[in-house]
Amino acid sequence: MAAVLGISCYYHDAAAALLINGKVVAAAHEERFTRKKHDENFPVNAVKFCLDWAKLEPRELTAVAFYDKPFLKFERILVTAIETWPKSSLAFVPAMRAWLTKKLWIKSLLMEELEGYGGEWYFPQHHLSHAASAFLVSPFDRAAILTMDGVGEWETATRGFGEGNRIILTDKIDFPDSLGLLYSAFTYYLGFKVNSAEYKVMGLAPYGKPKYVKTIKDNLIDIKPDGSFKMNMKYLAYPYALKMTNANFDELFGEPARPLGFKPTQTEMDIAASIQAVTDEVMVKAAKTLAREYKTDKLCMAGGVALNCVANGKILTETPIKHLFIQPAAGDAGGAVGAAAYVYHTVISNQSSVNRNRKKWVWDTCFLGPEYSNQEILKLLKRYKVKYQVLPVKQLLNRVADLIVDQQVVGWFQGRMEYGPRALGNRSILADARNPENQKRVNLKIKFRESFRPFAPVVLEEAARDWFKLYWTDPYMLTVCPVKNNKIPSVTHVDKSARLQTVSRKQNPVYYDLIKTFGRKTGVPVLINTSYNQRGEPIVCTPEDALMSFLGTDIDYLVFNHKFILDKKDMPARLISRARSRKFEPD
After folding, report:
1. Residue 358 pLDDT more than 60?
2. Is 300 found in the same domain as 432?
3. Where is the Carbamoyltransferase domain (predicted)?
4. Long-range pairs, 504-508, Cβ under 8 A, ≥24
5. Which residues, 6+ apart, have CB-to-CB distance to 476 below 8 Å?
6. Model pTM?
7. Quick check: is 568 in a domain?
């Protein structure tokens, strides 16, 4: 048995993943355990979960892989500070404090946290980990590869191809030229949080018109025909400051950067539409180039930019690429899978004829996190002295479908937690997509977030083409496509598009059966599926997290493990009060 542990941390979205004989058996974000969104710290809890899940001790691991090379990244920090001095002086001190006290000593920290492990430590480069996280678990024997994010060590984008267990990255773009950081600069300028709320810019874009595309292309980024680019750093502060843009950027767009929480006007919507259009252009040109150079219609993508669902949809509709694989944790969290997969496929399997002859494992699920037994849930419900009903599965599915038809919002908690930023049916909030009021209700009263934010639909795989102009399946909610039918207004964005999830019975049987039951009752096999969390919080992990969120919001019903059902009207007022004041403790 070959057991490889992959780890990513110290930038954002720390995570751990465990591969056994090349198969990902456990993976989780540290934020889900600590409840600190985008937690960057060493993933102590995620590592412990992965080892506990496989019933392994650290000494039984074959290898440990970290998702980048810290010393090379430190070199970039130092060189950039020197080149931009004295403007970099204010950012330099906190950066050095973090690096000299923690980030440079990752191997020592790994040894401390994995006491008893005596094997090899591996440090693949950041973008190689991204590339491996997509290609080495993809269904393809040969495919083009595109990675794009903010920055790794020096690289901000790479492209190349994969064949068998080999990855060849032939081209790269280095810092400070970065499409990911340019998008983050606009995220910052529009009043959203960097490395957290880029998806809000994507959601805001359809409300605007791309009036500033020429301004961006004339002044900020020079896009080449092959999708490569060069940026004008005159307007950007991220190489030397603790902010993304500078006074020149403000002057270019006519106003200062908006404060956090700023309510967007039409101007902000137009700016968001413009940077999204520029992003689409870069990604489409890069995909076309790869398809032509490698004579392929297969593409694997990773890196934070690969989570831009709008650009992904355009790649599938505007380029020769017809088969696109994006691992659902495409951002830095997925680097944990990539580092481990790279070590397994290029080091360990080459050392073992048994492993070398074994067929490659193909990614088939995102449900790789913790799960909780009925006994654990029952113990929680009794501890908090809350009323609940127990129903057989078929009866429960009918009951929940009827509740959703009656415009009740349901918290849905079952099985293993999702790996990646999307809730895909095990930690979800579900509602009726036919009711236009649900978009506002779920946004404002349950998620406590901006009213412009769209909701994603989940649809039965076999019915997807009846409701969406879709030419592919998307079980991980990674592409946007046009909506064909006006009967699902609460998941139809202002531009008549949706970021959808398709689901088959093989992927998630009970979730599928619920949607099918709802479809049988209504003729519409589509539901709102949004992540089970409140604004500013990670997706719920434990039953207690789910109960707290249920009590603290206007979710009407909570279903645990398609067995227990809780009605908000039966919940004690004292517990609701505690939950809403964020003081949630059992008696």
Report:
1. no
2. no
3. 4-340
4. 504/460, 504/461, 504/462, 504/473, 504/475, 507/364, 507/365, 507/475, 508/367, 508/415, 508/424, 508/425, 508/426
5. 326, 328, 366, 420, 422, 424, 501
6. 0.94
7. yes
Q: Are residues 411 and 560 in the same domain?
A: yes
Tell me how far apart the alpha carbons of residues 578 and 263 are, in angstroms, rounded to a whole number: 30
Report the relative pairing of strands 23-29 and 15-20 from DSSP bridges.
antiparallel
Q: Quick check: 583 pLDDT over 70?
A: no
Residue 145 lies in a domain: no
Inside any domain, residue 447: yes
Q: Is 500 exposed, middle or buried (0-12, 13-18, 19+ CB in 10 A)?
A: buried
Per-residue DSSP letter, 347: I
The token pair that represents 222 in the structure block:
């020079």
The reply to whether 340 and 231 lie within a common domain is: no
Q: How far apart are CA 458 and CA 455, in angstroms?
A: 10
Residues 397/510, Cβ–Cβ less than 8 Å: yes
> What does the pLDDT read at residue 451?
67
Q: Are 431 and 528 in contact (CB under 8 A)?
A: yes
Cis peptide before 239 (omega within 30 of 0): no
Cα(282)–Cα(358) distance, integer angstroms: 38
Quote the distance between the C-alpha of residue 323 and its chain's center: 20
Burial class (CB in 10 A: 0-12, 13-18, 19+), 25: middle
pLDDT digit string (tens) for 59-69?
A: 999 999 999 99
- Residue 164 gets the label, from left (phi > 0), alpha (psi -120 to 50) or beta, of left
**Contact by Cβ (8 Å): 559, 412:** yes
**8 A C-beta contact, residue 291 and residue 282:** no
Given a cut of 80, whether residue 10 has pLDDT beyond it is yes
Report CA-CA distances (Å) from 537 to 134, 440, 541.
27, 19, 11
Number of folded domains that form the chain: 3
The DSSP line for 111-138 is HHHTTT--SEEE---HHHHHHHHHHTTS
What mean pLDDT do residues 213-236 have?
A: 98
382 within some domain:
yes
Distance CA 461, CA 504 (A): 5
Residues 54 and 188 in one domain: no
130, exposed or middle or buried, with CB in 10 Å at 0-12, 13-18, 19+?
buried
Q: Are residues 29 and 75 in the same domain?
A: yes
Q: Are residues 349 and 401 in the same domain?
A: no
Determine how β-strand 480-482 pairs with β-strand 564-567: unpaired
Average pLDDT taken over every residue of the chain:
94
Domain that residue 349 falls in: 3-137+330-356
Q: Are residues 455 and 525 in the same domain?
A: yes
Specify the 3-state DSSP secondary structure of 4: strand
DSSP line for 402-455: HHHHTT--EEEE-SSPBSSSS--SSEEEEEETT-THHHHHIIIIIS---TT---
> For residues 551 and 575, is the Cβ–Cβ distance under 8 A?
yes
Kindly report the CATH number assigned to the domain that includes residue 299: 3.30.420.40
CA atoms 293, 296, 297, 298: torsion sign: negative
307 vs 299: CA distance, rounded Å: 14
pLDDT tens digits, one per residue of 469-505: 988 899 999 999 999 988 999 999 999 999 999 999 9
- Which positions ≥6 away from 138 have C-beta within 8 Å? 162, 300, 325, 327, 362, 363
Residues 69 and 92 in one domain: yes
Mapped onto helix, strand or coil, the DSSP state of residue 375 is: helix
